[in-house]
Structures are given as C-alpha cells and as structure tokens.
Amino acid sequence: MAGKKINPLLKSGLEFGPIVAFFAAYLVLKDKVFTIGGTEYGGFILVTAGFIPLLILSTLVLWRLNGHLSKMQVVTLVLVVVFGGMSVWLNDDRFFKMKPTLIYLLFGGALSFGLLRGKSYLEDLMDAHLPLTKEGWMVLTRRLTGFFFALAVLNEAIWRTQSTEAWVYFKTFGLTAAVFLFFMTQGSLFKKYGLEQGGDQG
C-alpha cells in the first residue's frame, strides 16, 4: 500500500535525525560515567537509553504523516527496542552493538528464502518502485543478499575487535556509506534491466 506523499526533507530528518542525535550525544557523553540508583552507567549506555524513545517517536511521526511503515522500518525499530533495551537493562553495550548484525542477517535471510522459492522479495521489503524486469529484480536481490551477509560479518568484526568509539563511527558513517556505494555501483544493472516508464515486463 502506497503511503501519503510528505516533504522529502522532513522524511529524511525523521529517518536520519535519531542517528545524528545519537552520534552527537555520544561525542559529548562518551567519557562520562553517571551513577543512577547506585549503579554506574557509561555515556554509551545513557545515549542508547535516549536513542530508543527518540527512534520510537520519529517512527510514529513518520507513520502518522506517511500513512504506513516499511517492513524494514518496523523490524529495525523492534530490534532497537529489544537489544537497546537489553543493553540499558543489563548495563552491557554488546547487545546494542549486535543489533546491526541481526538486522542484516534477517534481511539477508528473508531475501535468501525468496530466492530459494524463485521469487524476489526485494521490492516489497524495501518499498522500492524501481522499474526493473523480473530478471533484473532477481539479479539485484542476489547481489543485495550477499551484501547484507557481508555487512553482518563486518559489523561483528568491528565491534568485537575495535573500540566502542570506532564502532560508533563505523555504525554512523561506514554502514551508511556502504549502502550508498552499493546502489551507486548498480548503475549498469539498472541500465540493462530497466523498463521504460509505463512499460511492461513481457
């Protein structure tokens, strides 16, 4: 179901604003320790605690304005609440750092399941409206599936071997840049399998 049209800048602000706020707050609080209820919490945990309601609020506003949410947005929100909440509740940042790994594994697994059935779930999963042939969707889905699994492995390698600060930079800029570059490099695919506006697939 198509959503209502909203201002692209407002949409981008609602989608990326919480991430930018998380990064900015982390830079301010990363070296601080807070004692709450007799328990010490590092700046990362406090920032995570603030990020969860901020993401919930921005997602609800986006849903209210747009009329719907993509499956990716819903799954991401659920995992942030669950794993972010576990990090705060248990005072352990590892759960929140594992969240991107699970997101990419879930999406990669969903796309793989579709491929095994000879179908592409990509358009529905991403709410994409790219004019591609059936073969084009299958090729793009195979590539994106491998890309998601690669990002899952990369996130695990970064958070397990690097500092929290390095992971925050990687999460904020590295993953975003990787996704952007992936689609930028698919130009030849879009050209080869693209459909003329209003054209058909057969």
Order of helices and strands: HEEHHHHHHH
Largest sheet geometry? 2 strands, antiparallel
Give the number of domains.
2
Question: What is Rg?
Answer: 19 Å
Helix coverage percent: over 70%
The oligomeric state is single chain
Kindly name the structural category. mainly alpha
Count of β-strands: 2
Q: Could you report the average pLDDT, rounded to the nearest whole number? A: 89
Any idea what the shape is? globular
Distance between the termini: 24 Å
Q: Count helical runs.
A: 8
Instruction: List unreliable stretches of 5+ residues.
Output: 198-202
What is the percentage of strand-forming residues? under 5%
Strand order of the largest sheet: 1-2
Kindly describe this structure.
This protein has 202 residues and is mainly α. It has two domains: 1-89, no CATH class; 93-195, no CATH class. Helices cover 74% and strands 4% of the residues. The protein contains eight helices and two strands. The protein has helices spanning 8-29, 43-66, 71-90, 94-116, 122-126, 134-161, 164-184, 187-193; strands spanning 33-36, 39-42. The protein has a two-stranded antiparallel sheet. Strand 1 (33-36) and strand 2 form a beta hairpin. Helix 3 (71-90) packs antiparallel against helix 4, helix 4 packs antiparallel against helix 6 (134-161) and helix 6 (134-161) runs antiparallel to helix 7. The longest helix is centred in the last third of the chain and has 28 residues, at 134-161. The radius of gyration is 19 Å and the shape is globular. Residues 198-202 have low confidence and may be disordered. It is found in: Cell inner membrane. Belongs to the YciB family. InterPro entries: YciB. Plays a role in cell envelope biogenesis, maintenance of cell envelope integrity and membrane homeostasis. Keywords: Cell inner membrane, Cell membrane, Membrane, Transmembrane, Transmembrane helix.
